[in-house]
Write a structure and sequence with these properties.
With 184 residues, the chain is an alpha+beta fold. It contains six helices and eight strands. Strand 4 and strand 5 form a beta hairpin. The radius of gyration is 17 Å and the shape is globular.
Length: 184
C-alpha cells in the first residue's frame, strides 16, 4: 500500500481521471502470467486489487510480491527494453491497463502530466532501489545494511499533505473504475 501513496501523492486528480478514462480494467485469474520475461509489453499497469508475484531467474522463485497500488511495466516503459522478470497473479486480481502508445502520446503532448508521471515512477524506483540496497548491500558487498528509520516529523508539511491526499485519490480511482479492493 505504501507505493500507491507515492504515486497518488504526485499525480493530480486530473491525471488520475485521464488514466481511468484511457485505461481498461482487466481481471487476471490466479496463476495467469501478465508479463513474461523477455517478451516486450505494450501496456503499463497499476494494480487495483489482488496480489501478483515477480518471478526472476531459472528457479522460478518469487523476488517480490506486488499488491494494490503498485505499478507494473514501468521499467520497460522507461527504457523500452523487454521485462527482466515475469509477473504472475497469485490470486484473482484486477489491474488498470494503459496502452503504451496512448500513454506515450499523452506524455508528449502534456508536459505537466509528463513531469508528474515521471516523478512518480522515479520515486517508486528510488524506493525499490533503497529497499534492495538495504537488503543486499551495495556494489557486490553482501553485508546487511540497516533499513533507514523514518521519523514522520522529519518530513515537511507539503509531503505529509500529499500522503493524506494520496490515499483519498486512490480510493476515488477505485470507485471511478468500480473496483472493490481489499487493501491489506
Amino acid at each position: 500500500m505504501r507505493k500507491v501513496l507515492y504515486i497518488m501523492g504526485i499525480l493530480s486528480d486530473t491525471d488520475l481521471e485521464w488514466l481511468a478514462g484511457r485505461g481498461v480494467t482487466r481481471n487476471i485469474s490466479a496463476g495467469t502470467t501478465l508479463i513474461h520475461v523477455g517478451v516486450p509489453i505494450d501496456s503499463f499497469y497499476i494494480v487495483l486489487d489482488g496480489r501478483l508475484s515477480v518471478i526472476t531467474g531459472m528457479s522460478g522463485d518469487e523476488t517480490a510480491s506486488l499488491g494494490c497500488g503498485e505499478m507494473l511495466g514501468e521499467i520497460s516503459f522507461v527504457d523500452s527494453r523487454p521485462p527482466s522478470a515475469s509477473v504472475v497473479a497469485v490470486v484473482s486480481s484486477q489491474v488498470l491497463e494503459v496502452p503504451r502508445d496512448v500513454l506515450k502520446e499523452k506524455l508528449a503532448s502534456d508536459t505537466q502530466f509528463a513531469s508528474r508521471f515521471y516523478q512518480s515512477v522515479a520515486t517508486l524506483l528510488a524506493d525499490r532501489l533503497r529497499t534492495t540496497v538495504a537488503t543486499l548491500g551495495y556494489e557486490g558487498r553482501r553485508e546487511k545494511v540497516p533499513e533507514p528509520q523514518y521519523d514522520p516529523e522529519a518530513f515537511d508539511d507539503t509531503w505529509m499533505e500529499n500522503i493524506s491526499f494520496a490515499a483519498s485519490r486512490f480510493d476515488q480511482l477505485l470507485r471511478r473504475l468500480g473496483v472493490r479492493a481489499s487493501i491489506a
